[in-house]
């Protein structure tokens, strides 16, 4: 009897409530379709970055600036900033790997360098890695040609298509890595050991090359080992940039002798050569004395979990300080989005702004719903007063008004969810692939689409319930304030 009365009242007042119903249907349709598309985009980015380059979360050192694995988040034009290293790294790794949720970890040194090989130059992001552990963390990486360098071996692995060369032509070639820091620069020559490729297409990942960790440390200035890092001061740079004609003279009179061989140089040339000899001698001495003074320097510890859904609990536990007596004091824990930065965070911000915008729409819908219900209650003053006079309790009247509101709001939400699901399915079938490469990144390089999951549906039904509670409060107050005597006299 109660539910039949509720449905009768809803049907009788449906025309009056129609504007509110339409607003609710459109709002929930947009919410479902928008969150389904953005959720699928987020999943695509997870499959792109977390599964191939960032892991489920990372541990890094705290510093003055914020660094992602691709470099500084706040670079100025022409500026290169070296990321800080993790203090007591072995202890930090030990604590992380003790967590039963952790599948495996891999450390990286993040650097940026210009690579020159086979007459071509490209600017690349370099990840200095232990290739065995890195391969365990990201098993989908495919070796196209050559091999992965062994532990302790110097070597570079570039991506397929690097410099426009065929993959088979690159292994065994020598590559010159160069990076500049203010008034100094670092040069390293390493062999190209192999060529690899990611199983997905992505503009950001296309710039990545892998190298042994000692080479990456040398480029960042963390370690001075075989091959050395040479810091060139301004006066010394003038020597290195001098033209050969300046060093040995260009006049024919400087080269005399019966056999045409050079027999001497003037005093200025002698001074330049002596300065160069002194410079290189000092460099050798400094390099030898500084060997291995900084060892085991790492910028990031990438962590892969058995279940990505446990990432929040694991990072929260680590953030609370579960590091033991030492280690972890100055570490920064970030999820895969914060580890990658850039595009990966854009989708999260878009989803946040999308829902924030629709929150205003929902608030408007709540106001419209409240007004419609108040009008309905006022027009039913006599009916409510008669029910009270016949013995209906305040609780029963309140239950009836709440049930009517729930039927209207939840029914509108269900229709909106159904329409949003149909719209998402139509978008999937359309298989629209963005032509803009940066827009394509947002959808993992594939077509624009979405998946309406059970979690999304339950979330929006919860929002409908919250909207019901918000919209029914004032109408209930008005309904319960109607006295039976007043209602009977009004009738």
Characterize the main sheet. 6 strands, mixed, barrel
- Overall mean pLDDT stands at 75
Query: How many distinct beta strands?
Result: 12
- Fraction in beta strands: 15-25%
Helicity level: 40-55%
Shape assignment: elongated
Separate helix tally: 15
What is the number of independent domains?
3
Rg for CA atoms: 34 Å
Which parts are unreliable, with pLDDT below 50 for 5 consecutive residues or more? Answer: 224-237, 239-265, 284-293
State the distance separating the first and last CA atoms.
24 Å
The assigned structural class equals alpha+beta
Order of helices and strands: HEEEHEEHEEEEEHHHHEHEHHHHHHH
Sequence of strands across the biggest β-sheet: 4-5-10-7-9-8
Description:
There is one protein chain. The protein has helices at 2-54, 89-97, 131-137, 213-220, 234-240, 244-248, 267-289, 311-319, 336-340, 343-379, 381-389, 394-430, 437-441, 454-480, 484-490; strands at 57-61, 67-68, 71-72, 102-117, 120-129, 142-146, 156-159, 174-181, 184-197, 208-211, 300-305, 331-335. The longest helix is centred in the N-terminal third of the chain and has 53 residues, at 2-54. The strands form two sheets. A six-stranded mixed β-barrel has the order 4-5-10-7-9-8. Strands 2-3 form a two-stranded antiparallel sheet. It has 491 residues and is an alpha+beta fold.
């Amino acid at each position: 009897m109660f539910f039949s009365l509720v449905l009768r009242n809803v049907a009788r007042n449906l025309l009056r409530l129609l504007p509110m119903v339409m607003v609710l249907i459109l709002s929930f349709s947009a919410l479902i379709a928008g969150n389904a598309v953005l959720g699928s985009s987020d999943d695509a980015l997870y499959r792109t970055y977390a599964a191939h380059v960032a892991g489920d979360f990372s541990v890094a050192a705290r510093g003055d600036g914020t660094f992602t694995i691709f470099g500084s988040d706040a670079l100025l034009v022409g500026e290169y900033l070296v990321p800080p290293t993790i203090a007591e790294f072995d202890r930090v790794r030990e604590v992380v790997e003790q967590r039963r949720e952790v599948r495996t970890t891999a450390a990286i040194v993040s650097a940026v360098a210009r690579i020159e090989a086979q007459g071509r130059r490209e600017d690349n992001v370099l990840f200095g890695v232990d290739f065995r552990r890195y391969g365990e963390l990201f098993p989908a990486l495919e070796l196209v040609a050559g091999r992965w360098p062994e532990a302790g071996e110097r070597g570079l692995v570039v991506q397929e298509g690097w410099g426009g060369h065929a993959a088979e032509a690159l292994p065994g070639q020598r590559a010159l890595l160069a990076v500049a820091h203010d008034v100094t620069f670092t040069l390293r020559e390493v062999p190209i050991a192999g060529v690899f490729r990611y199983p997905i297409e992505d503009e950001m990942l296309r710039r990545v090359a892998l190298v042994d960790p000692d080479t990456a440390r040398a480029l960042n200035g963390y370690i001075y080992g075989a091959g050395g890092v040479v810091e060139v001061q301004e006066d010394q740079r003038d020597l290195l940039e001098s033209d050969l004609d300046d060093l040995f003279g260009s006049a024919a009179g400087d080269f005399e002798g019966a056999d045409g061989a050079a027999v001497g140089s003037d005093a200025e040339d002698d001074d330049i050569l002596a300065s160069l000899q002194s410079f290189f001698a000092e460099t050798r001495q400094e390099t030898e004395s500084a060997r291995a003074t900084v060892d085991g320097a790492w910028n990031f510890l990438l962590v892969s979990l058995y279940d990505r859904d446990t990432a929040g609990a694991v990072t929260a536990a680590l953030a609370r300080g579960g590091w033991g007596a030492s280690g972890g004091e100055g570490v920064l824990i970030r999820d895969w989005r914060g580890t990658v930065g850039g595009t990966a965070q854009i989708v999260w911000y878009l989803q946040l702004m999308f829902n924030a915008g629709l929150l205003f729409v929902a608030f408007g819908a709540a106001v419209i719903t409240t007004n419609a219900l108040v009008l309905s209650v006022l027009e039913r003053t006599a009916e409510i007063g008669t029910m009270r006079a016949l013995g209906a309790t305040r609780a029963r009247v309140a239950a009836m008004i709440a049930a009517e509101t729930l039927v209207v709001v939840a029914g509108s939400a269900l229709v909106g969810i159904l329409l949003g699901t149909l719209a998402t399915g139509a978008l999937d079938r359309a298989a629209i692939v963005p032509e803009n490469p940066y827009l394509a990144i947002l959808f993992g390089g594939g077509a624009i689409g979405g998946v309406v999951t059970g979690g999304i549906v339950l979330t929006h039904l919860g929002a409908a319930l919250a909207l019901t509670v918000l919209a029914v409060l004032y109408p209930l107050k008005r309904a319960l304030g109607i006295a039976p005597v007043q209602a009977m006299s009004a009738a």
